[in-house]
C-alpha cells in the first residue's frame, strides 16, 4: 500500500455539530437501536432473520460457511430466484398495479412501469435470452443508458441464472471489449444510444467495434432508444422484434444461494480491471435489508430516487435489487442534472413527490456551485430522507444538502461501501443516529468494521489508519472473476484475517468513522473509480509518450481532477495541440470520464529505489503545494528539477 492516510487526517475533523432524529421520525422508523444489540448478541442469527425477509424455495442448512476463509458461502443449501423476489412475489401479493419505475427520459418522455408490467417484460426478456442460447451460468454484458430496459435486462439475466456484467455507458469500445473478453460473455445487450446533455449519444458503434475483438459474443440484442442510424450485422437482434413479441409465460427456477448473480468491473492499481463477483442469496439479503433500514423505506407511501447510473454498483444495489426486492416505487432518470436547466432534479422531486433521495457528493457540490436560488424555486417538502454515497462528503456540502434540499430537518445518511462490499456497510440509521456532518459514523448492525494501524492493531478513538472489515458479511464479493489469487492479494494479504478496503479512515472522539479516501493510487472522479495505471497505460499507448504518471488533484466539483505528467518520446517539444491530443487520446481509450484535466510535460519522474513512481510528490505539484518528504527518492534532486522545468509553463 502506498502512503499512510494520517497526513490528511487533521483538516476534516473538528466537527462537533450533531443532529438527532426527530421523535416523530424515530417513532415510526423501520429499525431501532435494538438492531445493534440483537446483532451484537447473535450476528449470524441477525443475518438469518434478515434473509427471512426474502422468499426462498429451499431453506439453507448453514447461515455461514467460513471453513475456507476468505472464500465465504452464505445460506448454503438454500435456493431462491433473485428476480422472483424482486417481482413475482409482489405481484402475487396483489401489488401488481403499484408503480415500480417512474421513468423520466431526458427529452421529457415519461413512462410509469407497474410491477405487473415490469414482470411481464422481464419474463419476455428471459424467454428471449433463452431463445438466443443463453443458459444458466453464461455471462451477459449490458451496455445501456438509464432506461427501464437496462433493469429489465439485468432482471431477465437474474431470472435465468445468467450472471450479468453491466458496463457503464460512458466507457469506450476498448474498455468495453476488455470487460466482455474478461467475462467471456456470450451476449451483449445494448441500446442504439441514449440522451444526455440535450443530445443523442451513440452506444451501438462502440459495441460493434468492441465485439470485433471478442469471439465469445454470439449475439447482440439492441434496444431502440434514440432511433439514430446504426450499422446492422448478422449477430444483431432487435429488442423490438424479439422481447416485444416473446411469450410472457415464464416460470422462475430457483438457484443455489451461491449461484453467481453478477460481475462488476472496478479499476485496479495494476491497470487490468477487477471483475468483482457477487452471488445471489447473501447479496440480496444485505441489499434488501440495508435499503429497508438505511432509507427507512415505507413501500406503500414512499417515492424513492437514486440518481446513480446503473453501470455503477450503486445502481445495482440501490436501483435494481434493493428497492425492487422491497417493493419500492422509484424514479429513474436518464439524463444529466443540468438538462434542459439546472433545476431539473428539483423539478423531478416536486413532480413525483420524491420522499427519499440518494445522490453523490460531487452532485451536491455542483448544486452548491449553481446557487441556492435554484432548489429554492421548487417544493421539496416531500423529502424525508437524504442519502450520500461515492466519496467522503465535506461538512460544508453536508450542511448545504441539509439546509437547501432537506429544509433543515431531514436526516442525512452518509453511506460508505464499495463494489466489493455489495451493499452499505457504514451509515447512520435515520431513526436512531444523531448525525454529524461529514462522518459516515457507525457500521450497520451485523457489520464489523474497524480502523487499524499498519500492524493491524485497532486504533483508539481519535486515531487514524486503514479501514478494515473484521468479519464476513452476506453481500461480500466472493472472488475476482477468474483470479482467486488476485482476490487474496488485493484484499486479504495486508492484514491477517481482515478485509482491507483500501480506504483511509479515522475514529473521532466519539468513535464515529470519518472516511478519508483511497490510500492507494485509485482516483475518484465524479464518484467513479479510475486507476492511475489505466490512465498511464493509455498515455503510454500514444506514440509520443514514453512514460506517464498520473495523480488525482483535488477539484472542488469533481472531487478529484486527473493531472498527468508525461515524458515525451520521438518528439522534442510539445504544443497546446499536442497536449489536447493526449487528453483526447485518454478519453478515446478509456472514456471521457478518464480525460486528464491537465497534461504536464516533464523530463523525468520521481521514483523510489525499487522503481515505483512517487505520486504523492507529483500531487504536491499538481495542487501547487510545498513539496513533501523526498528522502525515499532514488534521486532526491529530481523534484527540484521538475519544479524548475515547470516555471512559467503552468
Ligand atoms: C459505493 C461505491 C468505493 C470507494 C470506497 C471509498 C469511496 C464510497 C463513500 C466513500 C467516503 C462514503 N466511498 N462511499 N468514501 N464516504 N460515503 O462508491 O463503490 O465505486 O466501488 O467505490 O468509494 O473510497 O472505497 P465504488
TrEMBL record:
Enzyme Commission code(s) on record: 6.2.1.1
Which parts of the chain are coiled coil?
Answer: none
Q: Record's Gene3D superfamilies?
A: 3.30.300.30, N-terminal domain of ligase-like (3.40.50.12780)
Residues recorded with modification N6-acetyllysine: 612
Enzyme class name:
ligase
The residue ranges of the AMP-dependent synthetase/ligase domain are: 94-473
Which positions bind ATP? 390-392, 414-419, 503, 518
The keyword Hydrolase is annotated on this UniProt entry = no
Q: Which residues form the Acetyl-coenzyme A synthetase N-terminal domain?
A: 34-86
Where along this sequence does the record place binding of CoA?
Answer: 196-199, 314, 526
Question: Which residues are involved in binding Mg(2+)?
Answer: 540, 542, 545
**Cofactor(s) this protein requires:** Mg(2+)
PTM notes: Acetylated. Deacetylation by the SIR2-homolog deacetylase activates the enzyme.
Catalytic activity reads: acetate + ATP + CoA = acetyl-CoA + AMP + diphosphate
Q: Which residues form the signal peptide?
A: none
* Annotated InterPro entries: Ac_CoA_lig (IPR011904), ACAS_N (IPR032387), AMP-bd_C (IPR025110), AMP-bd_C_sf (IPR045851), AMP-binding_CS (IPR020845), AMP-dep_synth/lig_dom (IPR000873), ANL_N_sf (IPR042099)
Q: Which UniProt keywords apply?
A: Acetylation, ATP-binding, Ligase, Magnesium, Metal-binding, Nucleotide-binding
Residues of the AMP-binding enzyme C-terminal domain: 534-612
Per its UniProt record, what PANTHER family does this chain match? ACETYL-COENZYME A SYNTHETASE, ACETYL-COENZYME A SYNTHETASE 1
Q: What is this protein called?
A: Acetyl-coenzyme A synthetase
Q: Which organism does this sequence originate in?
A: Glycomyces harbinensis
Amino acid at each position: 500500500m502506498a502512503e499512510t492516510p494520517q497526513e490528511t487526517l487533521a483538516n476534516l475533523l473538528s466537527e462537533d455539530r450533531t443532529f438527532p432524529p426527530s421523535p416523530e421520525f424515530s417513532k415510526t422508523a423501520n429499525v431501532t437501536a435494538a438492531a445493534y444489540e440483537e446483532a451484537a448478541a447473535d450476528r449470524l442469527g441477525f443475518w438469518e432473520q434478515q434473509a427471512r425477509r426474502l422468499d426462498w424455495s429451499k431453506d439453507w442448512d448453514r447461515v455461514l460457511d467460513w471453513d475456507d476463509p476468505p472464500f465465504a458461502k452464505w445460506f448454503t443449501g438454500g435456493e431462491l430466484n433473485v428476480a422472483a423476489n424482486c417481482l413475482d412475489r409482489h405481484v402475487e401479493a396483489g401489488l401488481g398495479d403499484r408503480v415500480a419505475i417512474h421513468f423520466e427520459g431526458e427529452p421529457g418522455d415519461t413512462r410509469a412501469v407497474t410491477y405487473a408490467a415490469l414482470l411481464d417484460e422481464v419474463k419476455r426478456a428471459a424467454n428471449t435470452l433463452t431463445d438466443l442460447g443463453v443458459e444458466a451460468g453464461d455471462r451477459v454484458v449490458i451496455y445501456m443508458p438509464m432506461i427501464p430496459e437496462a433493469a429489465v435486462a439485468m432482471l431477465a439475466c437474474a431470472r435465468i441464472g445468467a450472471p450479468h456484467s453491466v458496463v457503464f455507458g460512458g466507457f469506450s469500445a476498448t474498455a468495453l471489449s476488455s470487460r466482455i473478453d474478461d467475462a467471456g460473455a456470450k451476449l451483449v445487450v445494448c441500446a442504439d444510444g441514449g440522451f444526455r446533455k440535450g443530445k443523442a449519444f451513440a452506444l451501438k458503434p462502440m459495441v460493434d467495434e468492441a465485439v470485433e475483438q471478442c469471439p465469445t459474443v454470439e449475439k447482440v440484442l439492441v434496444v431502440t432508444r434514440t432511433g439514430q442510424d446504426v450499422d446492422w450485422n448478422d449477430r444483431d437482434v432487435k429488442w423490438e422484434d424479439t422481447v416485444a413479441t416473446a411469450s410472457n409465460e415464464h416460470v422462475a427456477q430457483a438457484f443455489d444461494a451461491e449461484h453467481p448473480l453478477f460481475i462488476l468491473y472496478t479499476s485496479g492499481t495494476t491497470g487490468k480491471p477487477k471483475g468483482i463477483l457477487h452471488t445471489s442469496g447473501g447479496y440480496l439479503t444485505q441489499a434488501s435489508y440495508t435499503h429497508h433500514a438505511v432509507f427507512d423505506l415505507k413501500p406503500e407511501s414512499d417515492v424513492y430516487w437514486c440518481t446513480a447510473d446503473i453501470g455503477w454498483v450503486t445502481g445495482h444495489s440501490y436501483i435494481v435489487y434493493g428497492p425492487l426486492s422491497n417493493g419500492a416505487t422509484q424514479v429513474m432518470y436518464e439524463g444529466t442534472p443540468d438538462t434542459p436547466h439546472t433545476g431539473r432534479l428539483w423539478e423531478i422531486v416536486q413532480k413525483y413527490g420524491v420522499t427519499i433521495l440518494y445522490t453523490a457528493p460531487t452532485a451536491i457540490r455542483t448544486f452548491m456551485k449553481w446557487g441556492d436560488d435554484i432548489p429554492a424555486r421548487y417544493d421539496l417538502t416531500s423529502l424525508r430522507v437524504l442519502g450520500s454515497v461515492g466519496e467522503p462528503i465535506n461538512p460544508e456540502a453536508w450542511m448545504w444538502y441539509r439546509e437547501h434540499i432537506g429544509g433543515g430537518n431531514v436526516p442525512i445518511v452518509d453511506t460508505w461501501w464499495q463494489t466489493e462490499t455489495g451493499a452499505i456497510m457504514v451509515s447512520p440509521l435515520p431513526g436512531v443516529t444523531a448525525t454529524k456532518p461529514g462522518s459516515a459514523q457507525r457500521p450497520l448492525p451485523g457489520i464489523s468494521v474497524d480502523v487499524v494501524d499498519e500492524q493491524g492493531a485497532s486504533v483508539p478513538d481519535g486515531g487514524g489508519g486503514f479501514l478494515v472489515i473484521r468479519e464476513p458479511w452476506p453481500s461480500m464479493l466472493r472472488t475476482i472473476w477468474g483470479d482467486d489469487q488476485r482476490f487474496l492479494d488485493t484484499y486479504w494479504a495486508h492484514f491477517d484475517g481482515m478485509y482491507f478496503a483500501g480506504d483511509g479512515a479515522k475514529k473521532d472522539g466519539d468513535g464515529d468513522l470519518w472516511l478519508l479516501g483511497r490510500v492507494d493510487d485509485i482516483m475518484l472522479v465524479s464518484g467513479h473509480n479510475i486507476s492511475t495505471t489505466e490512465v498511464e497505460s493509455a498515455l503510454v499507448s500514444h506514440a509520443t509518450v514514453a512514460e506517464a504518471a498520473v495523480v488525482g488533484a483535488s477539484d472542488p466539483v469533481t472531487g478529484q481532477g486527473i493531472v498527468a505528467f508525461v515524458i515525451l518520446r520521438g518528439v522534442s517539444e510539445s504544443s497546446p495541440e499536442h497536449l489536447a491530443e493526449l487528453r483526447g487520446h485518454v478519453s478515446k481509450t478509456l472514456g471521457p470520464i478518464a480525460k486528464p484535466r491537465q497534461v504536464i510535460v516533464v523530463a523525468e519522474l520521481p521514483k523510489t529505489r525499487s522503481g515505483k513512481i512517487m505520486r504523492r510528490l507529483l500531487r504536491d505539484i499538481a495542487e501547487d503545494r510545498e513539496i513533501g518528504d523526498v528522502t525515499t527518492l532514488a534521486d532526491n534532486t529530481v523534484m527540484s528539477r521538475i519544479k524548475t522545468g515547470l516555471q512559467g509553463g503552468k
